[in-house]
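Re: [ENG-882] Designed sequences occasionally contain unexpected residues at chain ends

Forwarding the minimal case from QA. Structure tokens:
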């Protein structure tokens, strides 16, 4: 994402619109090129960046939109693409959760100018660390490859390797941001397993959703629209706190007591000390993100999860919720 923003020549004075309901690195990369992250709140139901909010935040300084496919559910990327093209803005997608996801049969990675995937250990496919950028723009591709390897121009690099020549040209200050060959080998084998692993994630999600629909007065599930194919990176469950006698923290503790690990995705960025002190954000700025944050839990979901594991999580969540129903 950092290299993508650099390849677009973004820098000081520029603004990039993104969601506060994401991991901090989504906003950090904007800061690392010297631009300013501008947050647009999420839709209260989908928890995805709200295109209306994006539009409302566009100024003369806006250069790009950096949407996130939260949880591996595609955001409203086609609407965002329309907004971007009418305002002549670039779109860089944070697809860290969205390997294998699609919108109306269009795979994530084939829609925007630049799409960034993460292969960190917790993601749907992994190379330990690292990631991938997809683009169909030859000039941007060239620039990205130069930036990721010391700013050495690819043509000169090729000459150096093929002809055995010692000559190469440094075109700009680049980075050492390449995937190692070891990681690439792992990534290729992961890629072949991706459809199978995604199918298993989908099964688990469907089991969860079928079960939790039965206690819909106590918990809320995410329902994908028929036109999208989610990657099911996360399974976020929102508690109806007003219907429960316990809060989210207690719910997590109760699950922990049953040996079920959960997490919270995400603590909205505008509530973090850095974004408060750097940009003057405070509680109340993005109410939909805050409302989601207060009642959300990410349940375990991974391809090796057994049928019994899934059943145990379903029974535990159902027990805790019904036992603490008002
Ligand atoms: C994991 C994650 C990232 C960062 O990916 P890395 O490969 O770990 O740098 C960015 N955005 C989101 C939404 C993520 O979940």
């Amino acid at each position: 994402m950092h290299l993508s923003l650099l390849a677009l020549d973004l820098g000081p004075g520029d603004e990039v619109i993104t969601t506060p309901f994401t991991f901090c690195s989504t906003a950090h990369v904007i800061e690392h090129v010297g631009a300013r992250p501008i947050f647009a709140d999420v839709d209260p139901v989908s928890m995805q960046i709200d295109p209306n909010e994006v539009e409302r935040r566009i100024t003369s300084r806006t250069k790009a939109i950096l949407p996130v496919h939260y949880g591996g559910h595609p955001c409203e990327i086609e609407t965002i693409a329309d907004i971007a093209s009418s305002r002549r803005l670039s779109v860089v997608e944070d697809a860290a959760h969205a390997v294998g996801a699609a919108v109306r049969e269009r795979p994530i990675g084939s829609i925007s100018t630049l799409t960034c995937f993460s292969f960190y250990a917790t993601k749907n496919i992994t190379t330990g660390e690292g990631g991938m950028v997809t683009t169909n723009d030859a000039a941007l591709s060239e620039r990205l490859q130069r930036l990721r390897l010391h700013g050495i121009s690819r043509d000169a690099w090729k000459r150096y390797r093929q002809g055995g020549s010692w000559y190469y040209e440094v075109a700009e200050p680049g980075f050492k941001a390449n995937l190692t060959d070891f990681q690439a080998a792992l990534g290729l084998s992961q890629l072949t397993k991706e459809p199978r692993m995604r199918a298993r994630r989908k099964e688990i999600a469907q089991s969860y959703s079928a079960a939790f629909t039965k206690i819909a007065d106590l918990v809320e599930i995410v329902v994908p629209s028929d036109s999208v194919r989610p990657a099911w990176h996360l399974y976020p469950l929102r508690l109806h706190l007003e219907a429960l006698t316990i809060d989210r923290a207690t719910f997590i503790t109760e699950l922990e007591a049953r040996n079920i690990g959960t997490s919270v995705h995400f603590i909205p960025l505008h509530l973090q000390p850095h974004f408060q002190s750097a940009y003057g954000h405070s509680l109340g700025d993005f109410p939909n993100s805050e409302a989601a944050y207060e009642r959300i839990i990410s349940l375990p979901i991974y391809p090796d999860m057994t049928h019994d594991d899934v059943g145990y999580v379903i029974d535990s969540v159902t027990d805790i919720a019904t036992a603490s129903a008002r």
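QA comment: On inspection the terminal residues look reasonable. The chain has eleven helices and twelve strands. Proposing we downgrade this to a documentation issue.
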